[in-house]
Write a structure and sequence with these properties.
Layout lengths: L1 E4 L5 E7 L4 E5 L21 E5 L18 H15 L4 E6 L2 H11 L4 E7 L12 H8 L8 H13 L4 H6 L10 H8 L1 H4 L2 H7 L7 H7 L6 E7 L7 H8 L5 E6 L6 H4 L1 H13 L1
Parallel strand pairs: 3-4, 3-5, 5-6, 6-7, 7-8
Antiparallel strand pairs: 1-2, 2-4
Helix pairs in contact: 1-2, 2-9
Length: about 280
């Protein structure tokens, strides 16, 4: 682990995994420590992953002001990390809720982004998000799974606002292409890796200005990869295609049989897709 100081004085940690040209990695959750990303399906054998623990997560410090957990305010942390690394332009990869952070960063500093890779990513920063209907559409693809009925009933409780802790646990299989031993272990680690107080603030009021962000990314010269999972509801592949259409230079890849964590479902395909894109 190595560290640097954010503009507000908070000590932030990042982890270097693998060797090669740096790839700055932003985790999702929101506000889940970067450990859940592992080595991104072996991508670390092709690039050096610079994996940031967002403030208040993992090995990073807790800020004096909890309001700085809001995603737009964390963009300054990522820009400070780029400067700390001494990189003029960076390749950025973001997962899930980290997509909002990456989009805000690209909107503010378009000349600093060389490539942008968004993995099953949210795009609330651009005014696009998934809905309950999207989740239902994706869930309907899993009716043959032995866990489907229990997970579907739990999902109904979540949508009704009456979910118990057991219900939240029961919906986990919907987020994975295969609900095997590795997926179970990955899902079980979520609680200890996540800062839920910070997560509640991450996308709070004022975090997003979609019109301004859409206007700003028209100046983004960087190539963009939007990678969606075939079985994922957040975002559905067709919603991911909408997000891709908002960038000047974007391409869409849909990984067959993948859920929200595609590097677990097919590591070789995932790392190959991303590396091929990064090579250009």
């Amino acid at each position: 682990m190595t560290a640097f100081t954010a503009p507000d004085g908070t000590e932030l940690a990042y982890h270097l995994v693998g060797e090669g040209e740096p790839l700055l990695v932003l985790p999702g959750g929101p506000m889940r420590a970067s450990a859940y990303l592992g080595d991104l399906g072996g991508l670390s054998s092709r690039r050096q992953l610079v994996m940031l623990d967002l403030r208040g997560t993992g090995d990073s410090g807790i800020p004096a002001d909890p309001a700085t957990y809001r995603v737009d305010r964390q963009a300054a942390d990522v820009e400070a990390l780029r400067e700390h690394l001494g990189l003029d332009r960076v390749d950025v990869l973001a997962h899930s809720a980290g997509g909002d952070l990456a989009i805000i960063l690209a909107a503010r500093h378009p000349r600093r982004i060389r490539t942008l890779t968004l993995i099953t990513a949210r795009a609330r920063a651009l005014g696009v998000d998934f809905t309950e209907e999207h989740r239902r559409e994706a869930a309907a693809l899993r009716t043959a799974e032995p866990w489907f009925t229990t997970a579907r009933d739990a999902y109904e409780a979540v949508w009704a606002g009456s979910a118990t802790e057991a219900d939240w646990d029961a919906i986990a299989p919907f987020f994975y292409g295969r609900w095997d031993t590795a997926a179970r272990a990955h899902a079980a680690a979520d609680v200890e890796q996540s800062n839920y107080e910070a997560a509640d603030i991450y996308a709070s009021d004022g975090a997003f200005d979609p019109a301004a962000a859409r206007d700003a990314i028209t100046a983004l010269d960087a190539r963009v990869l939007i990678l969606a999972g075939e079985l994922d509801g957040g975002p559905l592949p067709r919603v991911a295609a909408t997000v891709a259409g908002l960038f000047p230079k974007a391409e869409l890849a849909v990984q067959p049989g993948a859920g929200h964590f595609p590097w677990l479902d097919d590591p070789f395909r995932f790392s190959g897709t991303v590396e091929t894109f990064l090579r250009g």
